[in-house]
Amino acid sequence: MRRKILCTxxxxxxxxxxxxxxxxxxxxxxxxxxxxxxLTHFTTFAQARIKTLDRSQNMARSKMVVIxxxxxxxxxxxxxxHESLTCKVRKSRSETIPFVGVMKFNVHIWQAxxxxxxAVKNGSFAPVKIQPNRQIYSxxxxxxx
Length: 145
Description:
alpha+beta; 2 helices; about 40% helix
């Protein structure tokens, strides 16, 4: 009787372990698919977001800041580097926020100098700094916020 219980317990343990090892890769693949879909969704969101930031920023070339420095002027404006955009998505430990997305991109700062404001605005601008930028979003209620 003991031998039968021991064999039954051992068989259940082996089957349970094998079953779990067979199910785990399927669950992992499903999670990878879901994460892949969310990354695609977030990348689309991030591309639209960087375009919106580009249009609405107050340091665009059309709104450049020109300041007087001694006898000359210096103009400065910023541009967003769309090519530098990278996105990452991970599952969150939160019960209310299933995913977190991080978008990274560079902001280029351009400057020109001239004797007059018009000379600055029409002058040749050169990049003086690349500023890394990182924005974190959470996925809640079917949207990135």
